[in-house]
Amino acid sequence: MASTLLNDTFLRALLREPTDYTPIWLMRQAGRYLPEYNATRARAGSFLGLAKNPDYATEVTLQPLERYPLDAAILFSDILTVPDAMGLGLSFAVGEGPRFAHPVRSEADVARLAVPDIDATLGYVTDAVREIRRALTDGQGRQRVPLIGFSGSPWTLACYMVEGSGSDDFRTVKSMMYARPDLMHRILDINAQAVAAYLNAQIEAGAQAVMIFDTWGGALADGMFQQFSLHYTEAVVQRLKREHDGARVPVITFTKGGGLWLERIAQSGVDAVGVDWTVNLGQARERVGGRVALQGNLDPSVLFAPGATIREQARAVLESFGNHPGHVFNLGHGISQFTPPEHVAELVDEVHRHSRAMRAAGGVAQ
Length: 366
Fold this sequence. Notes:
Layout (H helix, E strand, L loop, with lengths): L3 E2 L3 H6 L20 H10 L2 H5 L2 H14 L5 E2 L6 H5 L4 E3 L5 E3 L6 H6 L5 H19 L5 E2 L3 E6 L1 H10 L7 H9 L1 H25 L3 E6 L9 H16 L3 E2 L2 E2 L2 E5 L6 H5 L5 E3 L6 H8 L4 E6 L8 H15 L5 E5 L9 H22 L4
Parallel strand pairs: 1-5, 2-6, 6-7, 7-10, 10-11, 11-12, 12-13
Antiparallel strand pairs: 3-4, 8-9
Function: Catalyzes the decarboxylation of four acetate groups of uroporphyrinogen-III to yield coproporphyrinogen-III.
Subunit structure: Homodimer.
GO molecular function, one term: uroporphyrinogen decarboxylase activity
């Protein structure tokens, strides 16, 4: 699947190389805020019908790139594909979040868990990766932008697996963690093996960077985060293929609410750390030094403001990081389904415009 990248700014930023401007992509950039996404989802009949069909997944992955000059595509899928492949029975009810028919609650439940056969159970995802790469590439082998693959972190997957659905307080999974840490470690070890195999399969299929979403790591107490979340994210990172087709495959991790542990996360072996909007980006850059790139971190709610305010806040994020290599602009979490699409256009334009002006004014400091 050799191709020439027409725009490799995102990958170079992840590797802390100088770039002409700051690249931007958005978490959940293919989603319900786009009318074309909603139309495709309606044709698919359900969210899982959309996510498990490579043709539909390819279509919605490309939709935001047709609207906006984003610097990366991200595979359209869901973080819960891995526990679904373990046989837990994933479903999405209308108006509700994800739900598992067979949550992992007892010692017997944990004993039955096994790393799934990725090819047999998640082939629709790797098929989608291949199809998206083909769709991004023209007849001369020129690829528009890189493709990001992703997975949930072992801890975040365990939260859904044990709770059986989303949770406000994570009472069930935390009760297991404190009362039966042996069971929790067993779940997390299996998840780490599964996530690594899953991400490696995406890399082999054509993903050019991968991201680990530790959405619920910030729900843990200090000490517990390191033991039950970060340790297993590191176990995933250690197993990943870091080169494919002669190119480095950067790894990003993102812990919502993880600003307290930024320095420790930066030591986990990843190339870049995503930060949420509660973190001061300039201070974060100083805290991690030259170890990793940073991704983030505009408050998604800014996109409900007028265009002038969106542009002002985008400039504030860029100037907080400063004229240095190693910044990928993103939101501090996923884009809201209620976001006006035209406001995203304002954001993308201002990030590109202002970061180019910053480079022209002062070059890029090393």
